[in-house]
Specification:
Blueprint (H helix, E strand, L loop, with lengths): L1 H25 L9 H13 L18 E6 L2 E11 L3 E2 L2 E2 L3 H4 L19 E8 L10 E9 L3 E8 L6 H11 L5 E4 L2 H15 L10 E4 L1 H8 L8 H8 L13 H11 L5 H26 L13 H13 L3 H12 L6 H14 L2 H17 L6 H14 L2 H18 L7 H22 L2
Parallel strand pairs: 5-8, 8-9
Antiparallel strand pairs: 1-2, 2-7, 3-4, 5-6, 6-7
Helix pairs in contact: 6-10, 10-11, 12-13, 13-14, 14-15, 15-16
């Protein structure tokens, strides 16, 4: 940080000196008249002026980035704005789907009964100088997106050096409270805490904004945790949203590109960071559309049914968690008939049915899991125990319960053979052994 502070002080000194030089060149004392000598002096001064600024008030090398200068009493920073009509398609989704799916996201708000206007939703994504949430991590680029008059607006703020951060934060202080909902991806633990820290560090301790925060990372993990290689936004958008990035700058390289700009002053490579952040904003909107379809009953109509059994099940479990049990039940029924369910998923749905009192389907699922275990090279025994408990306590079919308990003990002993028995494993084997003894006693009393 000391090196960054020294660099900042040098840049401030250079800017002050340059301003003084320009003031001396432009301002003329009243006693000087417009004669030949003054014209010659003006010509000499013109030779010393830096390259002409573009219409944006910035040096010409910034023109390719499409940015403009924003000045206020707090200082200045840069803004790049991109506007997309609702007809724009990002992957398999069109931005025109946003107004129709946004109201379904009311399920994320546990305090209100209806989602507010689309124009009140703000999408946020940061590009920062590091990965932590501490004071040393500076968001050098803040990406925002929102709907305005049937146009999807992406607004990206850039600070050319840390001295411009306060001006950007002041701008955000005036802008953010006009939105009621915040949509991010991992923003609950990273983007928003980082940004909120910058409000405090820049003196805006009284800033108060409490939107409904919709972090789409958590539902993505709930649905795709085992069906996708990773739940990073880049993987989700490619595998489920049909979005393919070409010549994209990885987000992990953004800090290095920014530090290189601070070192050499060449803004050209920052265009790749702008484009990466812009695609992130569009992908956030597309993902919000996808979950809006989930919550609005669009699975199988607006979006295709999941092909994999586990994704089908986890979609239903997530919908039920969000209070959409009526939408989850058809997915459970499809999963129960799926030709390739895993034993783990069969037991997962059976456990849910057991809690809900749906014993008929729970027993069928456990029976499927037991049959699958018989064909597996490395079988599980959870379904055997659950089915044994059902036969013992609910139907009093002690013979069937005993047979299942003995099979469970054989599988467990085989799985733990040659492995040091820790307390948990010993407890499992001992529990099954006690169940077998109890069932043998019950059967002998019949």
């Amino acid at each position: 940080m000391s090196g960054l502070r020294d660099r900042l002080l040098r840049m401030r000194a250079q800017q002050t000196a340059q301003a003084e030089r320009l003031a001396g060149m432009v301002e003329q004392p009243e006693e000087i008249k417009d004669d030949g000598a003054s014209a010659a002096n003006a010509s000499d001064a013109a030779d010393e002026l830096p390259a002409a600024a573009s219409a944006s008030g910035l040096p010409p090398e910034w023109d390719a980035l499409g940015v403009r200068l924003v000045e206020s009493a707090e200082g200045m920073f840069l803004v790049r704005e991109s506007r997309y009509p609702f007809s724009h398609r990002h992957g398999i989704h069109q931005l025109a789907e946003l107004p129709g799916t946004q109201p379904s996201l009311a399920a994320f708000d546990k305090q209100t009964s209806a989602f507010r206007e689309v124009s009140n939703v703000l999408f946020l994504d940061l590009e920062t100088t590091g990965l932590g949430v501490g004071a040393g991590n500076v968001p050098f680029m803040v990406g925002l997106a929102y709907v305005e008059d049937e146009v999807f607006v992406v607004e990206q703020m850039l600070i050319r050096h840390p001295a411009e951060e306060r001006a950007m934060i002041a701008y955000l202080c005036g802008m953010l409270p006009s939105f009621t909902h915040l949509v991010t991806y991992n923003g609950r633990t990273f983007d928003w805490p980082v940004l909120y820290n910058r409000f405090i560090l820049n003196g805006y301790r009284n800033f108060n904004w409490e939107p409904v925060h919709i972090d789409l990372l958590h539902p993505s993990r709930s649905v795709w945790r085992n069906t996708l290689v990773s739940c990073k936004l880049s993987h989700v958008e490619e595998e489920r949203l049909g979005i393919t990035r070409s010549e994209d700058v990885p987000g992990s390289l953004a800090p290095a590109i920014y530090f290189q700009y601070l070192s050499d002053g060449d803004p050209g490579p920052l265009l790749g960071v702008f484009r990466h952040n812009e695609i992130d904003m569009l992908s956030l909107a597309a993902l919000a559309i996808r979950f809006g379809h989930f919550l609005g009953g669009g699975v199988g109509s607006a979006i295709p049914l999941p092909a994999e059994a586990e994704e089908l099940l986890r979609t239903g479990l997530w919908l039920e968690k969000m209070g959409k049990g009526d939408l989850a039940e058809p997915l459970y029924a499809l999963f129960a008939e799926h030709p390739r369910p895993t034993v783990k998923c069969l037991c997962l749905l059976a456990e849910r049915d057991k809690k809900c009192g749906n014993w008929h389907r729970a027993v069928l699922l456990w029976q499927k899991a037991v049959q699958a275990a018989e064909e597996a090279a490395w079988p599980e025994y959870e379904a055997h125990i659950e089915l044994a408990m059902y036969y013992e306590h609910r139907t009093k079919a002690f013979d069937q319960a005993l047979a299942l308990a003995e099979q469970a003990f054989e599988i467990a002993a085989r799985r733990h053979a040659g492995v040091r028995l820790e307390a948990k494993r010993r407890a499992i084997l001992e529990g099954i052994r006690k169940r077998i003894n109890r069932l043998q006693m019950k059967r002998s009393k019949e």
